[in-house]
Amino acid sequence: MPVRVLVVDDSSFFRRQISNILNEHPQIEVIDTAEDGNEAVEKVIKLKPDVITMDVEMPNLNGIDATRKIMSSCPSRILMFSSLTMEGARATLAALEAGAIDFLPKRFEDITRNKDEAKKMLCERIISIAKGAVIQPVSPPPVPWEKKRERPKAAVTETKPRAPEPKPAPVAQPERRESVRHRKTGKQYSVLAIGTSTGGPAALQEVLSKLPQDFHVPVLLVQHMPGTFTPAFAQRLDEICQIHVKEAQDGDMLKPGVAYLAPGGKQMIVKKRGSEATIKLGEGDMHSTYKPSVDITFESVADAFGGDVLALVLTGMGADGREGAKKLKKLGATIWVQDEVSCVVYGMPAAVKEAGIVDKVLALGVVGDTLVQEI
User: Fold this and answer.
1) SS3 326
2) Is pLDDT of 232 > 50?
3) Ranges assigned E (strand) in 173-241
4) How far apart are CA 84 and CA 102, in angstroms?
5) Do the beta carbons of residue 260 and residue 233 sit within 8 Å?
6) H helix intervals, 99-193
7) What pLDDT score does 179 carry?
8) Whether residues 119 and 257 fall in one domain
């Protein structure tokens, strides 16, 4: 059966445009459209589509509130369309916290100048997320806000053939803390490096919120995300986590208990001189598919720290991170990946696992606690 899609947008022009693009693909069928959030909720309950495309800004009930209602009444896979602005970033991140799986820019020219390439990307994204888990809305941990305000941060501030029918949607559920049984390796690490893409924002919140304020190593985060989104995402992570999270800046010195998020559109490279390690931001290879790239950051971490690294690859499309993880593994690093059941898209973790270099496969709900036990 083809992937069944519900298109939700208050613009009749956009509904028609998206519907036409999707219906041209042999593995996708637009089963209906809705012009606001209220209509979307009703049609989701009635039609149970495989994927929903959702606009953020709509009258009566906006996309964020519609996503919350859908996830509470009929959990579904939702792809948001948003503007690449700071306000658009905040709204999109709120939708992802509410349970949306992924997002794309509403203006196709923000994806690529090639319209055919943009159409292909949209269809591939729809098909990929149709096969993945339905993630639950993110519930920020009970971290006292007054504690966050008191935490000193000055010390870390740096200058139509039939396609296979999508399988039933597994719902990623956090596991109970006491279910974690991890035997420590006893290895000493210099850094934790994490790479992710589709489904990553919610996955990173789940993992990082478990790390204590006195976490013993610096954390490097590579999330495929536009440059207008990463400042807001870093700020949001910092609000809900006990460790300090910041968008990386050129020249940042790596410090324990601080997570550095690679800026969208840049490559984040680690350079080490003596006992000090710093971040270098740049354009990188102009032919790089991803900016930021997990491979490029992982490879630089291998050059800087050798095998004293714990690398973690979470949910995401493609194979970014595999080559970097290979280099790390050759030097003796520890490689963990997220398991298939809890992934929104089991692409990046699968690529690393299939390379035969993985030390541990973990459900998302236990990753954070296992990291604490290991490090």
Assistant:
1) helix
2) yes
3) 191-196, 219-223
4) 14
5) no
6) 115-130, 145-150
7) 52
8) no
Q: Which of 46, 22, 247 minimizes the C-alpha distance to 130?
A: 22
Do residues 187 and 296 both lie within one domain? Answer: yes
The residues, any chain, with a CB within 8 Å of residue 1's CB and separated by 6 or more, are 162, 163, 165, 166
Give the torsion sign (CA, 42, 171, 223, 258): positive
- Mark whether 191 and 305 lie in a shared domain: yes
Is residue 168 in a domain?
no
| Alpha carbons 199 and 368: distance in angstroms, whole number | 16
The number of domains in the chain is: 2
Would strands 267-273 and 276-282 be described as parallel, antiparallel, or unpaired? antiparallel
Percentage of the chain beyond pLDDT 70 is 85
Q: String of b and e for 211-245 (b: at least 16 CB within 10 Å)?
A: beeebebbbbbbbbbbebbbbbbbbbbbebbbbbb
Q: How far apart are alpha carbons 211 and 206 in whole angstroms?
A: 10
Q: CATH no. for residue 22?
A: 3.40.50.2300
As a whole number of angstroms, the distance between CA 153 and CA 185 comes to 32
- Domain containing residue 228: CATH number: 3.40.50.180
Of the listed ranges 74-88, 120-134, 178-192, the one predicted with least confidence: 178-192
Let me know whether 179 and 231 are in one domain.
yes
The tens digit of pLDDT for each residue in 289-300 reads 789 999 999 999
The 10s digit of each residue's pLDDT in 2-25 is 999 999 999 999 999 999 999 999
Nearest to 1 by CA among 42, 44, 39, 51: 51
Question: Which are the catalytic amino acids?
Answer: 197, 224, 320
DSSP reduced 3-state for 32: strand
Neighbour tally for 178: CB within 10 Å: 7
| Whole-Å CA distances, 371 to 105, 184, 212 | 34, 10, 11
